[in-house]
Design brief:
Elements lengths: L1 E5 L9 E5 L7 E9 L2 H8 L10 E2 L3 E9 L10 E5 L8 E4 L4 E3 L6 H21 L7 E4 L5 H12 L3 E6 L5 H8 L3 E4 L5 H7 L5 E6 L3 H7 L3 E9 L13 H6 L2 E4 L2 H7 L1 H16 L7 E6 L3 H10 L5 E5 L1
Parallel strand pairs: 9-10, 9-12, 10-11, 12-13, 13-14, 15-16
Antiparallel strand pairs: 1-2, 1-4, 3-5, 3-7, 3-16, 5-6, 6-8
Helix pairs in contact: 2-3, 2-9, 8-9
């Protein structure tokens, strides 16, 4: 089968190729119909993600497709439409996974949307609901809102009754962001954006700040959290891991909380299952829907990675066999 194989870690994808590899074997084997790109996929090709697999490995966190082989007692049957994944292996024509790593695709959802839902919405739900304690009527500031995780956070927060302020560092994305994310407001998060937040919230500021960006965005966000609020640290796509003097959250009365959604589910499996069920329910009811910006063939994996790195997308890119 064809697969996107990382043969060596490199800063420029030079250690990645489309290769012919053996079809995998496992408890459940799925014919991949759509595989969604996530920023950790790019970081792993460089050895810059917290999980550092040794080459060679097949890239790709998540996918959706049809079951072609299933062990007795797995809970799946040939022909089932499923979504799921692991830390690697999704960017291939066939993917072998344990049954515990798969879920049935929600009714009415196509394969690209199902592939795009998993990691992004799981991260958003763990951050906003499980850790953030989101309540209807609260104000949520979402940074990196045009990315897959940020857009999922906007979608989920809106579905749960929050007031959403979507933020991006690119002015050319704001109009599309307004159309796709449908936030209550959209702002540029470059420079001193606290004044915009204060104006939009009548000075109350934000109950939750969802930050996958870090760097200068984090620094300014410490001025945007209301007393008793939470600044949720999702990642550092800006490239700079910020630091904070602890007297700032002390005086301002807010919490800085790190979010590792995958680790959360591993440590608290019953909560992880609850999160997955809640996301499936919201999707089945039509309350949330992943936005797929584009679909490319597996042979165009490099173009997909490069577009994601440049930030030329709103939502998710999907690879198809």
């Amino acid at each position: 089968m064809k697969a996107v194989l990382v043969t060596a870690l490199s800063p420029d994808l030079s250690g990645v190729e489309l290769a012919e590899v053996e079809r995998p074997r496992g408890e459940v084997v799925v014919r991949m119909r759509a595989a969604s790109l996530n920023y950790p996929d790019l970081l792993m090709t460089r050895g810059e993600y917290q999980f550092k697999p040794e080459p060679p490995f097949i890239a790709g966190l998540e996918m959706a497709g049809e079951v072609v082989e299933a062990a007795p007692g797995s809970g799946f049957a040939v022909g089932d439409r499923v979504r799921g994944g692991a830390k690697t292996g999704a960017f291939a024509e066939y993917v072998a996974l344990p049954a515990s790593a798969l879920r049935h695709v929600p009714e009415g959802m196509d394969f690209p949307a199902a592939a795009a839902m998993g990691a992004a919405y799981h991260t958003a739900y763990v951050a906003l609901v499980e850790i953030g304690g989101l309540q209807p009527g609260q104000t949520v500031l979402v940074h990196g809102a045009s990315g897959g995780v940020g857009l999922a956070a906007c979608d989920l927060a809106r579905a749960l009754g929050a007031r959403v302020i979507a933020a991006s560092h690119r002015e050319d994305k704001l109009e599309m962001l307004r159309a796709v994310a449908r936030p209550d407001a959209a702002i540029l998060n470059t420079g001193r954006f606290r004044e915009d937040i204060a104006r939009l919230t009548d000075g109350r500021l934000c109950d939750l700040v969802f930050d996958p960006v870090g760097g200068d965005v984090f620094d300014e966000s410490t001025r945007c959290v209301t007393f008793g609020g939470k600044l949720l640290v999702i990642g550092f796509v800006s490239g700079r891991i910020p630091e904070i003097a602890v007297n700032i959250p002390l005086i301002k009365g807010f919490s800085v909380v790190g979010v590792r959604a995958g680790e959360y589910a591993r440590r608290f499996p019953e909560r992880g299952e609850h999160v997955a069920r809640a996301i499936d329910t919201l999707a089945s009811e039509g309350q949330i829907a992943p936005h797929v910006d584009g679909k490319l063939p597996l042979t165009s994996w490099r173009e997909a990675f490069e577009r994601m790195e440049r930030g030329d997308i709103v939502g998710k890119l999907v690879l198809e066999p």
